[in-house]
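User: Sequence in, structure out. Go.
Assistant: Echoing your sequence, followed by the structure tokens.
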Amino acid sequence: MTTQPRWDRCIYQRGPDAVRFVAAYLADAHRRLLLIGGAGFDPRSPQLCETLTAHTSHLTGFFLREERPVTSRELQEKAATNIARLQSACAASEIVTIQIFARDGAIIGGREVAKSLSALTLTDYTDVIVDLSSLSKGISFPIVRYLLDRVTTLPGSINIHLFVTEDAQTDGRILEVASDRPDLIAGFAGDWGLDPQKEAATLWLPQLIKRQHRILDMIYKFVDPDDTCPILPFPTQNPRLPDELLEEYRAELQSTWGVEPRDFVYAHERNPLDLYRTILRLDDARRRVFQEVGGSQIVLSPLGSKVLAIGALMAALDRNFPVAYVEAIDYKVDTDTLNGTTPSSGELVHIWLSGADL
């Protein structure tokens, strides 16, 4: 049985079209905007805020500072610089610190951010904007889940928009230093571990990214899938990237995961809807095949690219897929990326996720 995609018809814009949307729609005088974003070291952290305030004064900022047990002084200094830019661009803003780990090492970031969001009066706003550019997936995914669930209980209509400053080069130069606890993202457990899914054939869809062997190995052992279909970015800005990933992960693909050439999932590096629709088509096909023998369970692991992560996020929201990941205890970033001197081909990407104006 095929289920109609929730976002079969979806407003998706990038580059000049996304900027025009900001200037023509979000800047309208009667709109009251809430921007939820990161206040960290990522050079993209202040960019959307500055773009919005260049067009409108009806903006409130709610910026999250993710705190981890290990953070270099260089990253702390860069985060402080970005916070100053955010506060300068948006006077009506609040900086909220989110502890990602408890003292015993348990991952609590997702629950902590939900508590912080519960204090917001969402009915004060016509549009809530989530900027995923500098938020970790363990924080951004629960934010979007919480907002979608909450607005359905409120009177009136509130639009929810996802934005990201797409820059695969920057994504590739920010390397996570993984903790030792693979887990499911808060709010994205799906039916994992429930009795109806115990006999289901489990398919793991990891997004491949360079230099993350340890993270992928931990998630693989945690999920213990029956089959694995790695996600490769294609087409890509770097046409050699898929081949480089295949070469780097050759041992895992051949020996550990047992991946055949036909098992790869290809997704356009710059279009989140391509991955979203591909995952849903795969789910529809598997449901038909496995419906008489225990069912099918798809587990997602979006790593790296923020744009492709949006596609995985939408698929997880649509079909209640579990999302397995390993939280970072720190990040390694080269100096050029931190200083913003690396040439950027990044563009603003917009997905209109929910609202009556759709």
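User: And one key feature?
Assistant: The chain has a mean pLDDT of 93.
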